[in-house]
Amino acid sequence: MRNMLPKKNKKELIAILEELIRQKTVNPPGNEYLAAKIVKKRFEELKISYKTFEKQKGRTNILGYIGKGKPQLLIAAHLDVVPEGTGWKTPAFHPVLKGDKIYGRGACDNKGPLAAMLVLASRLKKVEAKLRGTVIIAALADEEKGSDLGMKYLINECKLKPDWAIIPDVGGYMKRVIIAEKGILEIKITAKGKQAHASTPEKGINAIEIICGFIKKLKKHKFKYKQHPLLKKPTLNIGMIKGGFAPNAVPGQCELEIDIRFLPSQKKEQIIREIKSLAPKNVKIQITQCTPPSQVKKESKLVKTLIKNLKAKGIKAECKGMGGVTVAKNLVLSGAEAIAFGPGGDDAAHISNEWISLKELQKFIEIMQSTILDLLK
Ligand SMILES: [Zn+2]
Fold first, then answer.
1. From the CA of 217, how far away is ligand 1's center (Å)?
2. Domains of the chain
């Protein structure tokens, strides 16, 4: 095949990916420093300057810099993985190469794309003098648990401020370029009732029953919104419920936590008004977390350049939106143009027998190389 990497690169790719999978970076507790050591070794071998950032000991972020000055193009993958779970045919942290596939926890999410970028780093280093701007290759901590020690920390406390970013952390076999993400609104609802003995429930007010009635109304509610070309309708998830302390007592308090994924046409104040209009009197409503929706223009140079280079490799990619959230959102909200796209399928991450195709990773390297060179020429 014309686009295949030289044999040496393929060997490197396998070696780096296997080494990364062997490092048990399950979050929690993370221990990203284990995999960060592999990244550091690679940067040192290639004489790429790098910095490490730790908000908490052992929760390492490592960033390598190729080229200099502006614009800055960040490519960020994450070092942490989800727990292995059950159902593995081979040990989760002992990579197995079978045909074109490498199996192991993190093969797809997100160590495969990271290994690919570390292979590409050697080629970028060779043309460093020609780059107009800086490529930052980042390996991040804490992505699977909200990024407080990873991307959010780098943006808020370490002055990370790229102009562009590509986050190779979504499935779709490179056919989806995510340019829009819904907002997230998390709300805590507390019902106050009146505690009483179970033998005389009429003397109490059952807080669990108040919440149950409220949930029924929430499930039927249709939020006001305008349709979005890339995002599906808003969603509401009944996520957590906590109430009561014994079967023989009428519960005096019950707490419910919900997650609403919302569209750019919805304001959080309006959503709260709608929720309040459904709520009974003895209920308190608090916002616990709100992240607004984010979007990058389809016509942006970053999006157009990536789509063009995907097309050149025979991949007809489409711009899409999503309701889940990647760290691209944090970057967009901090002023960067950031998009998510990458190799691997939706069905390959967070499952047992996680895998990635080497051929696809090699193609990913080619596409990233031509995209980066186009953007920084
Ligand atoms: Zn991921």
1. 34
2. 7-181+294-375 (3.40.630.10), 183-291 (3.30.70.360)
